[in-house]
């Protein structure tokens, strides 16, 4: 029988641990290694392109589960590796590397250092296909006892891409979706404004003031982080953005019901785009997943990694993964 993990008594230890300070860093003070990796993918037009990812790890890669990280719109892999600002570390990728994971943060097609092609052709289906191909390539080229366990971790539109890729191909042994709802919900943005960005062309950029207002809770984040975020913001392809709007309008098209591995969902209580007030409904959209845990983060807006309480969310993901795949 399908169970919602947050209601299980066996998980009380997890909840208690999250009331304590963030999990201590992994043993030793060895620096996190960062390697740039390139992955060939073939898209629907039959052409080959390159997807770039950055691999973070400590020590050996053997027997390390690998988290494949996918970012939301207006971001690239840098969402997962924000710099230290104001004396606080905002890098999810380095945190998880210190917890003995291998962490591959991707620049999805059309972003960062990955190949850019027709922005109208780069849509949700192409992104999900590229993610699947990266997972296949990662396994095919891995050394013995390396990358045997794959975990998809996605934020916002990256979570949507993960859901499609996992439902269609089943590459990962667990899925973590943050800042995304497969449940019908309203967002505090005028629909005509959202549609107006489509007129920019095949690659779209959003104004910084809009990003800050939608992505950050000002009472629980450093304005210097939002300023940095806007400075390095990436564009989004029109194909991807149009599909995002479609899925937000018609979430019944999202194949979350086809996911058959453990799922963790994180929602911020101050997230204007994917509110934790829908947590109960969201727990029901993965009927074939053996376990589903919906975790609510307090005092957290849409950009989970950019808020003061980020370590609590990171520790929760780590603890959950240790129970379902490690």
CATH superfamily: Alpha/Beta hydrolase fold, catalytic domain
Rounded mean pLDDT is: 91
SS summary, helix count: 10
Any idea of the CATH topology?
Answer: Rossmann fold
Count of individual beta strands: 11
**Distance N to C terminus:** 22 Å
What is the helix content?
25-40%
- Named CATH architecture: 3-Layer(aba) Sandwich
Bulk shape: globular
In percent terms, what proportion of residues is strand?
15-25%
Structural class: alpha/beta
Order of helix and strand elements from N to C terminus: EHEEEHEHEHEHEHHEHEHEH
Number of domains: 1
In the sheet with the most strands, the strands line up as 1-11-10-7-6-4-5-3-2
The gyration radius over C-alpha positions equals: 18 Å
Describe the structure.
The protein is an alpha/beta fold. The chain has a single domain, classed as Rossmann fold, CATH 3.40.50.1820. The protein is built from 10 helices and 11 strands. It has helices at 12-18, 92-98, 124-140, 157-169, 191-196, 208-215, 223-231, 238-249, 279-282, 310-324; strands at residues 3-4, 33-42, 48-57, 66-70, 102-107, 150-155, 174-178, 203-204, 236-237, 263-268, 291-297. A 9-stranded mixed sheet has the order 1-11-10-7-6-4-5-3-2, with helices on both faces. Strands 8-9 form a two-stranded antiparallel ribbon. Strand 4 (66-70), helix 2 (92-98) and strand 5 form a beta-alpha-beta unit. Helix 3 (124-140) crosses helix 4. The longest helix is centred in the middle third of the chain and has 17 residues, at 124-140. The chain is globular. Residues 1-29 have low confidence and may be disordered.
